[in-house]
Amino acid sequence: MAFEENNKPVASEQPQAAEDLVSSFSKDSHLSAQSQKYSNDELKAGEANPEGSESVPMEIPKKPMSEYVTVSLLCLCVAFGGFMFGWDTGTISGFVAQTDFLRRFGMKHKDGTHYLSNVRTGLIVAIFNIGCAFGGIILSKAGDMYGRKKGLSIVVSVYIVGIIIQIASINKWYQYFIGRIISGLGVGGIAVLSPMLISEIAPKHLRGTLVSCYQLMITAGIFLGYCTNYGTKNYSNSVQWRVPLGLCFAWSLFMIGALTLVPESPRYLCEMNRVEDAKHSIAKSNKVSPEDPAVQAELDLIMAGVEAEKLAGNASWGELFSTKTKVFQRLLMGVLVQMFQQLTGNNYFFYYGTIVFKSVGLNDSFQTSIVIGVVNFASTFFSLWTVENLGRRKCLLLGAATMMACMVIFASVGVTRLYPHGKSQPSSKGAGNCMIVFTCFYIFCYATTWAPVAWVITAESFPLRVKSKCMAMASASNWVWGFLIAFFTPFITSAINFYYGYVFMGCLVAMFFYVFFFVPETKGLSLEEIQELWEEGVLPWKSEGWIPSSRRGNDYNLEDLQHDNKPWYKAML
After folding, report:
1. What residue ranges are annotated as transmembrane (predicted)?
2. With CB atoms 3.0 to 4.6 Å apart as the test, which of 119, 172, 240, 365 could cross-link to 98 if both were Cys?
3. For 333-345, how does the pLDDT look when each residue is reduced to its tens digit (9 = 90+)?
4. Is residue 573 part of a domain?
């Protein structure tokens, strides 16, 4: 793509001017809409071409789902990084209850039995999240330096080093602790680069579904981790925990090998001036010929964004806090959405599931954890439909409301029926069964809404120029809050028992209102169109009616959707 010399923006312009270039190109890259015979929904979805646009298709044509099997499988290979995170979550919850693990890394009671103190349990479980937080910030740079694919291979290699240190631990808990930090560094990098690569190679009408596959892989890892713990729990030696850890090598090697088949991000290729490679990457992902005019139109739009980023220069960390370019607003949204995902209370069940359900009187809490894993994994398949058909906002709002109801019932039954009058032993098996049922309802609601959508939002909301930095910050928020919940949960539950559920209930109320007022709908939009949505200052609760400039009819009134100087509570009226 070339720009006329007399129209080329000068290099001294600030990032805002660069974004104006992208917006201008977006409007000029397609012929303007002249006809009013199409509905706004058809125009927004790109299913209709306004009159006068016969020469160049507005969109790469959608094909039957059977045509996208290959790209879907390739995205699953990228999403497999989530499996390694889920595997850790599923296995560590069992490790802290296994006899050999307690004997090697715990302390001894006067009666000779071994145990892990609340502090040591919290550190061993939760330090992984701190490693992930730093890994997301530090190692995600590999995606910008070496490409998304090579960057992923690098961070997976770091993960392998951490696993080796853990397996080699004999009886020093701090060696195992260090290994979890290092493996966390690798998973933190994966959590940034995996959704990023999927969002950049997936066809836009499948982007939400395919990014959600990252969460699907997390749930698969949790479920199979539970099953592996159940299969090894009857051993009396280190097989209990070393076999599940050893399998991590197989998962890592599979992912590194599978990445060789995956196309590189066309946006990264354009940054490296590998335009022909970028064209073939777009064509491969969308199952069309590289010579298709729609591929060239898509490539031109990406190149416009890349040129704008180059004009603005290298992004600094300080630029993340710019309100003029709307980057800070998006960063804050990503950080808070990831924080709220943890404050739903999901890891209360996933990290400490075996301990929680032992407290409700179940003899084999490992079996209960497997049930939770099955519900979690199966429900995530349903999320592949909800994220693109219901949209991001509706998923988050519906999820917050339903999880709140489940958490209220879970906590209330636990407080009033399971431990009435402060008794130390469960007094009602029926109460325990009721809590298990509503835990499963809660997991279903979480797995179909907040679990995948939080990753989708952080993968698609940021400009290319600052994308890796913003995604790293948002992911770090997830990991830090995950650490806080994992570390403090043993202390809190020992002090207030199931009153803890009311804390999560309050958080769910807060996140419902936050999503309503501050999270826009981005279903069906390309990454470049999402940038335009933010630049035009559309009110989040009106964003479902927004249509990209390239697909607007003459009767479209943007001002009805935009921010003005009124406070948000008056703007709603």
Report:
1. 68-87, 119-139, 151-170, 176-198, 210-231, 243-262, 331-353, 365-384, 396-415, 435-458, 470-492, 498-519
2. 240
3. 999 999 999 999 8
4. yes
